[in-house]
Design a protein that fits this description.
The chain has three domains: 4-49, no CATH class; 56-75 and 82-109; 111-172, Arc Repressor Mutant, subunit A (Orthogonal Bundle), CATH 1.10.10. The chain contains nine helices and two strands. It has helices at 4-16, 37-49, 58-76, 85-93, 97-108, 112-130, 135-142, 147-158, 162-170; strands at 21-25, 28-31. A hairpin with a 2-residue loop joins strand 1 (21-25) and strand 2 (28-31). It is globular.
Length: 180
Amino acid sequence: MVCPRCILAVEQLLDELNLEYKEVNLGSAQLQKPLSETDQTKLEARLKNLGFQLLRDPDQVLIEDVKAFLIQQIHHQEGPFTEKVSLLLQKRFHRDYGALSRVFSLTEGQTIEQFISGQRIEKVKELLSYQQYRIQEIADIVGYSSAAHLSSHFKKRTGQAPSQYNEKRLGIPPASDPAQ
């Protein structure tokens, strides 16, 4: 689960299945009581239909929690990280960052830094879609050192400059060549 709508979808599903829960957060749900095998099978099938999966492996659960925490920090907090990500994760999960990083890489096929980078680019895309921020403002919001750094990173990840991305997304034709 990566957004508030995901949480709502899971809450509705749990309600439909009459499964009482204490809370549903990004990446997790805390039920009032253990699931019967029948309820677990039903829940797994319905979650799969929604594009989610029920996790049992402790490493997978940990990594989903890490991802949910990072998504929350990047997409739903004001401004960039206020301290090093490695320290934030160590404090939050009470695990050595090196060990957490190894499990993350093995489970996800990418490093924590690559995951963060991808999420930051998604946040940039979101802010570009609002059409109310200049690129320097977006760089400041997302935590890039400059507009040039953001633009270069964006182009490296998406294959296009932020302005090209927005023009394509909005269906604005490219400027015509005056020589033609």
